[in-house]
Model the fold of this input.
Amino acid sequence: MGIDIYMNWDGMTDDEKRAQYTGFDSTAGNVGYLREAYHGEPYATHALVPEAFEWTEEIGNLMSCAQMAGTELPDDLCDLLTRGCPMSAEKLQNRLGSTILLARERIDKVYPEMDPDIADLVVSSFISFVDLALDKQAEGRNIYVYASH
Done:
């Protein structure tokens, strides 16, 4: 069990979407995917994209309510809602410093035996994720984040 964060953007290609299926790779921020296992706090993903967790919960509640009422949401609305929470790359960039500190703290606390080179890759994944968001937004694409947990 774990936390998976997916970044989507306008005009995302099928190849870009497939690149995010990494087999739970905690070093794949460069493709718009972050991963943390549920092995203990702190969780850096919660610091970087808290809105993604709120969005996922609210969308889940909305879909559950519709199902309990015996109705279905239109497919295009479901696609839009499950795309994720609209996000500003600048907001991610502003949170990056504290997120990196939490990622380091988590590794020290939860994974003290982790190889330092692997630890650096895990931490740099958050940087790559934010860099990708900045690049996509600079291209004029809207950014969205979605939490699966």
Observations:
- The radius of gyration is 16 Å.
- The beta strands are 2-9, 33-37, 85-87, 143-148.
